[in-house]
Amino acid sequence: MTASSATTDSAATDPTTSSSLFDQAISRYQQGAAPEELIDDFLAITAQSPRQSAGWTCLAWLQLLLDRPHDALHSARTAVRLNPQDPQARINLSVAMLETGQKGVRDHIEMVQRVMLMAPELDTELNDSMADGLQRRPGWQALEKVRSWLQA
User: Fold this and answer.
1) Is 106 exposed, middle or buried (0-12, 13-18, 19+ CB in 10 A)?
2) N or C: at which end does the chain have fewer Cβ atoms within 10 angstroms?
3) What are the chain's domains?
């Protein structure tokens, strides 16, 4: 989960409970809360604000961390549909596609590479996110593969 996913959409959301719950959940994640502790919050966030791509991006990430790739595939597809330029959403979708045997991963990897060329400041943030994922889920082959493709 990246901060850009969190901040990109938060201003566009309802400034009441969903935004507050989103910010609190992101903060708890950044403080090391386990995905199991946060998944219900992001399910509620996406139910309350179904057009907030950042909520879907974070939900997909948590579902991937919890080894629920089919759920993550749905959430990541929704996030990408709502915000096609979000590289974290595309990374999540790529990982979910790999883990569920879907085709078409290369297109998403190439889109992330294009976004990173246009916005190189995202490179560190995305690498930090992938490192966080590998720390929270050691030996995560699909994420390792995506990371190696992006660093090539």
Assistant:
1) exposed
2) C
3) 3-151 (1.25.40.10)
